[in-house]
Write a structure and sequence with these properties.
By secondary structure, this protein is an all-alpha fold. The chain has 14 helices and no strands. The protein has one domain.
Length: 357
């Protein structure tokens, strides 16, 4: 909105600053942060009055029982802050911006429906696993088909550490993209089990994709680094900046001990935004590194369930894996911060792949 207002329709040279993605990314971050900090106390107070509190698993760490009743569905704050900031600072004529916003809306709506049924309607499991998965598949397929319609038959993906290996998936591209979207959303959802645990890697992944989006969308840098250029993808740096700001603002209230939880409303929406950005920038495989903590959490659940069904034995004390470390004696804050550190290291390694090829 501000881009169209102050840059496209102005006669003042000073306003040319709005043309720069770097400038708008910084202020999208600060705007989303400010919105979240301003609206956070009001939203938390409203959730408390409505008695929208978190239910706690009886079979989990006993230290978590004290969290019962903590307001949840705080992901509304992340979604709202991100959306308002993007509408203010992004180039709204860019189709990739709308793809990512639709991923935010679609996954956030599924998460909201699940939270609503669980917390407000008191339906213990919310949406059934089948219902949630089918809705995610439908949303992922619709987004993927829209994205594929812009490719003109170019179904290449980028393989990290490989300079010129960009295999074309052909007819396999659609199921691959849907898997990325659904997998990312659920991986973030599984990570959201401790105060601030999911938000930390979200901030790190957001910052990484600010850089990645800018590089792949910039002709000079893409040519210099010999990476697959995606014209127009640079605008997603503004969107990811807004995600970073919204996540920082939410972390202010979600840090240990949390005043509010994001719920599926926030975790699925975040996963949708990150997954769609990875797709647009052609960095779906690099997402395995950038979001390595999310991947580890999801894989731990898959291994735990698979092992128990096949061998009647568990691999971890409890899954997702953050509970394994808690039950092993590590305090919750220590688990959280160490996972954040791992996330930073993995993101730095991921960014280094643009030269290590």
């Amino acid at each position: 909105m501000l881009y169209q207002l102050f840059y496209l329709h102005n006669s003042f040279p000073v306003l040319n600053v709005f043309r720069y993605i770097t400038f708008r990314s910084i202020y999208a971050t600060l705007t989303a942060l400010a919105i979240a900090l301003l609206l956070g106390p009001t939203l938390i107070g409203l959730l408390r009055r409505l008695q929208i509190g978190q239910e706690i698993r009886d079979d989990g760490p006993k230290s978590h029982l004290s969290k019962k009743g903590t307001p949840t569905m705080g992901g509304i704050l992340i979604v709202g802050s991100l959306l308002l900031s993007v509408l203010l600072w992004a180039d709204l004529s860019n189709r990739y911006v709308w793809m990512v916003l639709l991923a935010l809306f679609a996954n956030g709506t599924i998460g909201f429906a699940d939270d609503y049924l669980k917390v407000i309607k008191k339906r213990s499991k919310g949406l059934s696993a089948r219902q949630k998965f089918l809705l995610q598949l439908a949303a992922g397929a619709a987004l993927s088909i829209w994205y594929m319609s812009t490719l003109s038959g170019d179904g290449r993906i980028v393989v990290p550490f490989m300079k010129s290996l960009n295999p074309d998936l052909g007819i396999l591209l659609l199921p691959f993209l849907v898997t990325v979207l659904v997998g990312t959303a659920n991986a973030v959802n599984l990570t959201d089990g401790l105060d601030g645990l999911a938000v930390g890697p979200t901030i790190v992944a957001g910052l990484a994709f600010v850089v990645i989006s800018y590089l792949v969308g910039h002709h000079v840098f893409a040519s210099y680094l010999r990476i697959l250029e995606v014209p127009g993808a640079g605008e997603l740096a503004v969107v990811m900046g807004a995600l970073v700001g919204a996540a920082l603002g939410f972390l202010w209230f979600n840090t240990y001990p949390a005043q509010v939880f994001m719920g599926d409303t926030g975790s699925l929406a975040i996963g949708g935004v990150i997954g769609m950005t990875a797709i647009v920038t052609r960095q779906e495989l690099l997402l395995l590194l950038v979001g390595g903590v999310f991947v580890a959490e999801a894989v731990s659940v898959i291994l735990q369930v698979g092992s128990y069904k096949l061998r009647k034995k568990r691999i971890f004390r409890m899954a997702p894996i953050h509970h394994h470390f808690e039950l092993g004696g590590l305090s919750e804050p220590k688990v959280i911060v160490r996972f954040w550190i791992v996330s930073v290291v993995l993101a730095l390694v991921a960014l280094s792949t643009f030269k290590l090829r």
